[in-house]
């Protein structure tokens, strides 16, 4: 994906206009479009200039769908939008750029001059948050959209609509949304002014999720805001999965774009097993094409997860080591220091394996273990991820440990058990913790255990990838290291959250006259190295969906392969009513997880090791 200079946060492309046909009137001047980066505004602008050699023309096309011609363009907000103009004699394109002569006339002026409505050649994006009154919309989606607006990453013409069953006015929606908006720590200029401008673009429509009539009314309102421009529409389904299909059916038939693209972001869970996932995909495809469906896993939008391929494929020191020859094991660790706390009703229907392991951790594993893709194109990357998933052994119950947190008193405070949650059945066996050993049966990773661990109500909050390398054969310094070879093992730690960092643990001589070895960290701490605030994952994924970039979204065959690994295990756990191992709230989890790791001669990297 092409990027702008480092002073700007977003990667935005302007679609090319259609080239003049040979049958065009001889009086029409040939005009090309050049990208121009404005340091004053940090914007990529589309500027019309007389024809230039094709090598100078911006070739990356975005915001397109199968039903949209290349004439549709998204112009950056606050940037001047240029109508097609005839070249002026003795005036070079560079002089025009310098003098800034490309201010756009109003729609009325353009119509008077050209005889047609210039809006027909412009485009607009309408973003509808379905389920706008829910926590996800309030805490993540609206704040992410505002952050994109604040950074200048949204198109010039855009509208945001909240859609839910709750009765609410536009003003009430804006009041609700305003409470969750914040500006960048490192960039607070005009924060209040920007918030007000953003909120004026937010509207609300109340309706039922299964009512075509209500979606038709939404369509009418959207058209009023689109103002005759080419309409592109993005629907974010922030609703329970049991009403996905109703909402998609109604939106597709009554509120989709007539001559622009229509895209739908679908939140997890994508079913409970292979069968329900396949049924959901089949139902979605009755109304949408695969390239209109954006299955979001917000962990793929995390900065350190997106950096995985950069770390591996752009650094010569890592790629040769990325195989069974040098890597002893890989650990993917996810822990939260709180329980379900009122969310138990939802969680009890899925459990930690479906909620975290089958999607977040497995997606990270696929990115980590994939072969070098042909290119950075979305399909090339997703093809390699699917190959990894299809090469993995189905999980066996003997390679899995499950647990559930119990009540615990610490520091005079009583912490509740999972089953103390009023929304959870008292006899629930749903695991709140799971550890598993997975294997990839291919030439690169044969025999290397990939250990996953995920749990709630543990001693800390973290998400990280730990790569433990093999011991040095015939190590000259074994006498100095001692018997605990694990502590002398080189380890690469990619801390996804919190306090993002990349650490490489090495053995080093302690300064002095003696020969004493110490384990030290080569530490890339993001907060210390980069002054810029790290964007939230939802910002990146929403921007990608608007631009049509599918690299970080899950394809249907990826989903099928992921469920094929976990479905047999999940059915066996539920049919045999496997009792989870109980662990105290705030502990390190079940003891069985350590026995599982020891079976493969592995020690969990997050236990008893300095961070």
UniProtKB/TrEMBL annotation:
Pfam families recorded: G6PD_C, G6PD_N
Which GO biological process categories is it annotated with? glucose metabolic process; pentose-phosphate shunt, oxidative branch
Q: TM segments?
A: none
User: Where is the Glucose-6-phosphate dehydrogenase NAD-binding domain positioned along the sequence?
Assistant: 129-307
Give me the ranges of the annotated region Disordered: 11-36
Residue ranges annotated for the Glucose-6-phosphate dehydrogenase C-terminal domain, each copy included: 310-604
Give me the stretches of Low complexity compositional bias: 19-36
Which InterPro entries does the entry mention? G6P_DH (IPR001282), G6P_DH_AS (IPR019796), G6P_DH_C (IPR022675), G6P_DH_NAD-bd (IPR022674), NAD(P)-bd_dom_sf (IPR036291)
Q: Which GO terms describe its molecular function?
A: glucose-6-phosphate dehydrogenase activity; NADP binding
Q: In which pathway does it act?
A: Carbohydrate degradation; pentose phosphate pathway; D-ribulose 5-phosphate from D-glucose 6-phosphate (oxidative stage): step 1/3
Q: Which reaction does it catalyse?
A: D-glucose 6-phosphate + NADP(+) = 6-phospho-D-glucono-1,5-lactone + NADPH + H(+)
Q: What does this protein do?
A: Catalyzes the rate-limiting step of the oxidative pentose-phosphate pathway, which represents a route for the dissimilation of carbohydrates besides glycolysis.
Q: What family does the database annotate?
A: Belongs to the glucose-6-phosphate dehydrogenase family.
What's the protein called, per UniProt? Glucose-6-phosphate 1-dehydrogenase
- Organism in which the protein naturally occurs: Prunus dulcis
């Amino acid at each position: 994906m092409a990027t702008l200079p480092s002073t700007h946060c977003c990667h935005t492309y302007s679609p090319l206009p259609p080239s003049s046909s040979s049958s065009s009137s001889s009086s029409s001047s040939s005009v090309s479009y050049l990208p121009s980066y404005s340091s004053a505004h940090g914007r990529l602008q589309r500027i019309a200039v007389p024809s230039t050699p094709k090598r100078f023309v911006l070739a990356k096309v975005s915001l397109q769908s199968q039903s949209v011609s290349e004439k549709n363009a998204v112009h950056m907000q606050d940037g001047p939008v240029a109508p097609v103009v005839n070249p002026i004699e003795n005036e070079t394109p560079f002089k025009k750029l310098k003098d800034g002569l490309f201010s756009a006339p109003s729609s009325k002026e353009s119509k008077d001059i050209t005889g047609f409505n210039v809006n027909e050649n412009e485009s607009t994006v309408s973003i509808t948050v379905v389920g706008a009154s829910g926590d996800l919309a309030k805490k993540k989606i609206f704040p992410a959209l505002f952050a994109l607006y604040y950074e200048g990453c949204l198109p010039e013409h855009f509208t945001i609509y909240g859609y839910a069953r709750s009765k609410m006015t536009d003003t009430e929606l804006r009041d609700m949304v305003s409470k969750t908006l914040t500006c960048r720590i490192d960039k607070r200029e005009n924060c209040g002014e920007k918030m007000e401008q953003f909120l004026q673009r937010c509207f609300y429509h109340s309706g039922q999720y299964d009512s075509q009539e209500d979606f038709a009314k939404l369509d009418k309102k959207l058209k009023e805001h689109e103002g005759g421009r080419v309409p592109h529409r993005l629907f974010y389904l922030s609703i329970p999965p049991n009403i996905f299909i109703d909402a998609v059916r109604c939106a597709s038939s009554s509120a989709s774009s007539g001559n622009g693209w229509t895209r739908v972001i679908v939140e997890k869970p994508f079913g409970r097993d292979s069968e329900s996932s396949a049924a959901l995909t089949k139902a979605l495809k009755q109304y949408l094409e695969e390239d209109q469906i954006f299955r979001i896993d917000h962990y793929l939008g995390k900065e350190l997860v997106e950096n995985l391929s950069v770390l591996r494929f752009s650094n010569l020191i890592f790629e040769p080591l990325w195989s069974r020859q040098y890597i002893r094991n890989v650990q993917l660790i996810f822990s939260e220091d709180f329980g379900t706390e009122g969310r138990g009703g939802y969680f009890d229907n899925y459990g930690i394996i479906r909620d975290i392991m089958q999607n977040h951790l497995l997606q990270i594993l696929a990115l980590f273990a994939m072969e070098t893709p042909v290119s950075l194109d979305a399909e090339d990357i997703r093809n390699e991820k699917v190959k990894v998933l299809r090469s993995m052994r189905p999980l066996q119950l003997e390679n899995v440990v499950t647990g559930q947190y119990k009540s615990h008193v610490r520091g005079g405070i009583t912490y509740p058990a999972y089953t103390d949650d009023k929304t959870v059945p008292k006899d629930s066996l749903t695991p709140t913790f799971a550890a598993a050993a997975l294997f990839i049966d291919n030439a690169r990773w044969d025999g290397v255990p990939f250990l996953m661990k995920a749990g709630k109500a543990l001693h800390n909050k973290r998400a990280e990838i730990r790569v433990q390398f093999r011991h040095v054969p015939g190590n000259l310094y074994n006498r100095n290291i001692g018997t605990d070879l694990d502590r002398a093992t080189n380890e690469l730690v990619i801390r996804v959250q919190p306090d993002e960092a990349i650490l490489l643990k090495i053995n080093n001589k302690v300064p002095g006259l003696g020969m004493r070895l110490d384990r030290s960290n080569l530490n890339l701490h993001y907060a210390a190295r980069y002054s810029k605030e790290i964007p939230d994952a939802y910002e990146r994924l929403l921007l990608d969906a608007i631009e049509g970039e599918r690299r970080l979204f899950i394809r249907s065959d990826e989903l099928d392969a992921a469920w094929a690994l976990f479905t047999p295990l999940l059915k066996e756990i539920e049919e045999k009513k496997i009792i989870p191992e109980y662990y105290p709230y705030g502990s390190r989890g079940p003891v069985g997880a350590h026995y599982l790791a020891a079976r493969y001669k592995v020690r969990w990297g997050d236990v008893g090791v300095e961070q």
